[in-house]
Design a protein that fits this description.
Layout (H helix, E strand, L loop, with lengths): L2 E10 L1 H9 L8 H13 L3 E6 L30 H6 L4 E7 L13 H19 L7 E2 L8 H9 L4 E3 L1 E2 L15 H8 L7 E7 L3 E7 L3 E2 L1 H7 L6 E2 L6 E3 L5 E2 L5 H10 L5 E7 L14 H14 L2 E3 L7
Parallel strand pairs: 1-2, 1-13, 1-14, 2-3, 4-5, 5-11, 6-9, 12-13
Antiparallel strand pairs: 7-8, 10-11
Helix pairs in contact: 2-9, 4-5, 8-9
Amino acid sequence: MAKKIYFYIDDHIWTLRKLAKNKPASIFDEPYFAMLKEAHDKYGMKVQLNLFYQTEESYRDGVFDFGDDDSMFTLADMPDTYKAEWEENSDWLKLAWHSKREYPDFLHINITYDAMKESYMAVKNEIIRFAGEKSFTEGITAHWMPVSKAGVKALYDCGVRILNCSSGDAYDYDPETTVIHHESWRKVFLENRQPETRFYDTLVGGIYPQTMLCAYNHIPTDIKNKQKGTLEFVKDEETGMIFKTFSTGICLNLVPVENLQERYEQQLQYDYVCVGTHEQYFNKEYVNYQPETPEKILSMAKFFHEHGYEFFFIDEIV
C-alpha cells in the first residue's frame, strides 16, 4: 500500500474575498489558487481548504491592510460563478468548515450544541451553494482545535465522522498554579466552562513549548503515540465521533525554509504524514506575510511526491 500524505490549510477567507472582489475568469487566475494548481499538476498534490464564514472587524486594526477597501466579507458574498470549476477540480481541491469566525481564540471550547450546529451549517450551506456538493468534505479541524462534548455531538449530527484532536497528558485547572499565557484565554476558558475543559503541555508545530487548552476531542499521549504516522484512530463511544491527531509535526508557516528539508526527512519514517499551514501567510496585505509561502508548499509537494507518498483526504479512512 502506498504511503499517504494529507495536506490542509486553515483560516481561509481572504483568498475567497479576493475572488469575489476581483471576479477573474477562472479561480486559477488568482495567484493563490494558481500556486495550488501548479503543485497539483506537477506533483499530484491534493489539498483541503478550511474556511471561516466571515472576516473580522478587528482585521482593520493593522492585521490586514486592504487600503480603503476594508469592508466586511462573508461566504454569502461569494458568487456561484465558479461552481462548475470548483466541482471539476474537486478530486484534488476540497473545502471544509473551520469556524464561523477567527476570534476569540478557542471559541469552540465550551460551545453549546445549538451554537456549534449553527456555525457548521452556515459554512457548509454556503460551500455547497457556491462550490457544489463534490467540493465539500467533512473530515475537519476546528479552529484552535478544542471542541466541547456538546459541540462534538452537534458536529456528528451534522454528518461529521472524523475530527482532528489535541493530544497529551491533560490536567485540571488550578487557580493557584496553572499558567494561562493570555488573559483572553482565561476568559474563554472560564465562560460556560464544561467538565472536559482542561490543559496540557505541548510543542506547537513540534517546535514551541506551550501550555494549551483542551476539551472533549483530546486523547492521551499513549494513544497519540500509537496513532502517529499511521492511519489508526479511536472512536468515541458516547458521541460516535472518530478522533485522530491529524498532524505528524509540520506546520509550514512555523518552519523556516532552510529547515524544511530536515523536517521533511524526519517524516519518512511514517506511512502516514500530515502537513498543515495557514492561508493568511500567502497574502501581502497580512501583517505577518511570508513571501516564501509558495516555495514552502511546492517544496513539500515535490519532496513527498518524489519519495512515493500519495496525497489523499482524511475522511477517506472512515
